[in-house]
């Protein structure tokens, strides 16, 4: 049970290991691309490529027919990774070994929808994968296995995403094979990573440069870090803290060094609305941004 690209390595690993996959559940196809054609999500497409049956219910929480159809599969276990729908108790209880979730954090830290971005944004020294037996709470179920991933000082969401996806695929095979005893999560250290919205990408220049640098790295690729410039939105794809001071949001030199609440941020790669992404040097050749320009 999964939907985005993060879930695909787990599906492929289960298939390659010879597990009998009774059914794949994924989010329904949605319009995508210029033609807005109905497009299956990555897990749906991967299941089709593997010749596996797929169900794509739009909702399951109060659908008793969906609960009965799920129970009729007579499952040993359900593997859930970034599925996107809340599973009700009848579905959680149906598999003999329960619903096993691949969660992209070291629980109980960063329960919720956006744990990878939250870890990068907070400047955590490490994150990881937890295999958890799901209960009715929000990522509160007992833990089966955990594996840490160190986060370097320049970690970005895409690279952490890919590394954790691979760890999750490997760890779920261990969990199914070893059937480890569940360990309750401690409440101490529990934090929550809410679902992201577009405004989470806005750069508040009153913040320290190190915090804005983390936001740029955390919000890539979505919702993407951005600022207002010359009456339009300027996306900031990469940046780095640097020495400098001035009124927050003020451009300090001819190379897109921007003053922050503490220190300054050098914009390295940017993108105007409707235009291609480019290095700051290339952007400035066509569009000078002189010192004193205010970003907001």
UniProtKB/TrEMBL annotation:
<dbReference type="Pfam" id="PF00551">
    <property type="entry name" value="Formyl_trans_N"/>
</dbReference>
<feature type="domain" description="Formyl transferase C-terminal">
    <location>
        <begin position="195"/>
        <end position="287"/>
    </location>
</feature>
<dbReference type="InterPro" id="IPR036477">
    <property type="entry name" value="Formyl_transf_N_sf"/>
</dbReference>
<protein>
    <recommendedName>
        <fullName>Methionyl-tRNA formyltransferase</fullName>
        <ecNumber>2.1.2.9</ecNumber>
    </recommendedName>
</protein>
<dbReference type="InterPro" id="IPR005793">
    <property type="entry name" value="Formyl_trans_C"/>
</dbReference>
<dbReference type="InterPro" id="IPR041711">
    <property type="entry name" value="Met-tRNA-FMT_N"/>
</dbReference>
<dbReference type="InterPro" id="IPR044135">
    <property type="entry name" value="Met-tRNA-FMT_C"/>
</dbReference>
<keyword id="KW-0808">Transferase</keyword>
<dbReference type="GO" id="GO:0004479">
    <property type="term" value="F:methionyl-tRNA formyltransferase activity"/>
</dbReference>
<feature type="domain" description="Formyl transferase N-terminal">
    <location>
        <begin position="11"/>
        <end position="176"/>
    </location>
</feature>
<dbReference type="InterPro" id="IPR011034">
    <property type="entry name" value="Formyl_transferase-like_C_sf"/>
</dbReference>
<dbReference type="InterPro" id="IPR001555">
    <property type="entry name" value="GART_AS"/>
</dbReference>
<keyword id="KW-0648">Protein biosynthesis</keyword>
<feature type="binding site">
    <location>
        <begin position="105"/>
        <end position="108"/>
    </location>
    <ligand>
        <name>(6S)-5,6,7,8-tetrahydrofolate</name>
    </ligand>
</feature>
<comment type="function">
    <text>Attaches a formyl group to the free amino group of methionyl-tRNA(fMet). The formyl group appears to play a dual role in the initiator identity of N-formylmethionyl-tRNA by promoting its recognition by IF2 and preventing the misappropriation of this tRNA by the elongation apparatus.</text>
</comment>
<dbReference type="InterPro" id="IPR005794">
    <property type="entry name" value="Fmt"/>
</dbReference>
<dbReference type="Pfam" id="PF02911">
    <property type="entry name" value="Formyl_trans_C"/>
</dbReference>
<dbReference type="InterPro" id="IPR002376">
    <property type="entry name" value="Formyl_transf_N"/>
</dbReference>
<comment type="similarity">
    <text>Belongs to the Fmt family.</text>
</comment>
């Amino acid at each position: 049970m999964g939907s985005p690209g993060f879930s695909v390595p787990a599906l492929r690993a289960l298939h390659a290991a010879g597990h009998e996959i009774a059914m794949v559940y994924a989010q329904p196809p949605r319009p995508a691309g210029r033609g807005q054609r109905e497009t299956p999500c990555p897990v749906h497409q991967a299941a089709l490529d593997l010749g596996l049956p797929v169900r794509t219910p739009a909702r399951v929480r109060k659908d008793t027919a969906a609960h009965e159809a799920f129970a009729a599969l007579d499952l040993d276990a359900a593997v859930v990774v970034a599925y996107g729908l809340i599973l009700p108790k009848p579905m959680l209880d149906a598999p003999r070994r329960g619903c096993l979730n691949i969660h992209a954090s070291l629980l109980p830290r960063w329960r919720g929808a956006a744990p990878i971005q939250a870890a990068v944004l907070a400047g955590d020294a490490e994150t990881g994968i937890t295999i958890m037996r799901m209960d009715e709470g929000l990522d509160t179920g007992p833990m089966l296995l955990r594996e840490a991933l160190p986060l370097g000082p320049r970690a970005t969401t895409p690279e952490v995403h890919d590394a954790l996806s691979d760890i999750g695929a490997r760890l779920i095979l261990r969990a199914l094979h070893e059937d480890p005893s569940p360990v309750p999560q401690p409440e101490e250290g529990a934090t929550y990573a809410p679902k992201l919205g577009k405004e989470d990408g806005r750069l508040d220049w009153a913040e320290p440069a190190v915090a804005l640098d983390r936001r740029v790295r955390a919000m890539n690729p979505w919702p993407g870090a951005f600022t207002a410039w010359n009456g339009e939105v300027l996306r900031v794809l990469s940046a780095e803290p640097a020495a400098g001071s001035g009124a927050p949001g003020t451009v300090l030199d001819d190379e897109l060094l921007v003053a922050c609440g503490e220190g300054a941020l050098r914009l390295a790669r940017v993108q105007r609305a409707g235009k291609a992404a480019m290095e700051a040097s290339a952007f400035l050749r066509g569009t000078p941004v002189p010192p004193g320009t205010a970003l907001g």
